[in-house]
């Protein structure tokens, strides 16, 4: 449930950020929020499982319970955070001194 709430919040904030810079249709960047969140969680879970398997042995992977979730959330936040960093560094499409048109 937390994943869905986080994805919706980040999806809307990224759209507002890009629309404020004059990008009319930021849907592809917003879809990347979903892809990077899910991919980050999967990659984080896989990496943590590999770490546990290497350090504690293969049998310890069966004992992983709640400790994998913080790792998965952190890796998902890192992926989405990099997307926001890219979006903030993108140039504005607005002309200097011209206010943006209101979105209808």
Explain what you see.
With 104 residues, this protein is mainly alpha-helical. The protein has one domain (2-89). The protein is built from 3 helices and no strands. The chain has helices at 2-20, 27-56, 68-89. The relative contact order is 0.17.
Give me some keywords for this one.
mainly alpha, 68% helix, elongated, 104 residues, 3 helices
Question: What's the helix and strand layout?
Answer:
Blueprint lengths: L1 H19 L6 H30 L11 H22 L15
Low-confidence stretches: none
Structural class, from secondary structure content? mainly alpha
Beta-strand portion reads: under 5%
Largest sheet: none
- What string, H for helix and E for strand, traces the elements in order? HHH
Shape: elongated
Question: Structurally, how many domains make up the residues?
Answer: 1
Distance between the termini: 31 Å
Radius of gyration equals: 18 Å
| Strand tally | 0
* Whole-number mean pLDDT: 87
The helix content is 55-70%
Distinct helical segment count: 3
Quaternary structure classification: single chain
Summarize the structure.
This protein is an all-alpha fold and about 100 residues long. The protein has 3 helices and no strands. The chain has helices spanning about 1-20, 25-55, 70-90.
């Amino acid at each position: 449930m937390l994943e869905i709430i986080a994805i919706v919040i980040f999806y809307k904030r990224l759209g507002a950020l890009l629309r404020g810079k004059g990008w009319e249709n930021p849907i592809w960047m917003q879809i990347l929020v979903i892809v990077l969140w899910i991919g980050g969680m999967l990659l984080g879970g896989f990496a943590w499982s590999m770490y546990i398997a290497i350090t504690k042995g293969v049998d310890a992977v069966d004992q992983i319970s709640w400790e994998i979730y913080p790792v998965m959330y952190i890796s998902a936040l890192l992926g989405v955070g990099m997307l926001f960093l890219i979006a903030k560094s993108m140039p504005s499409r607005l002309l200097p001194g011209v206010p943006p048109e209101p979105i209808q």
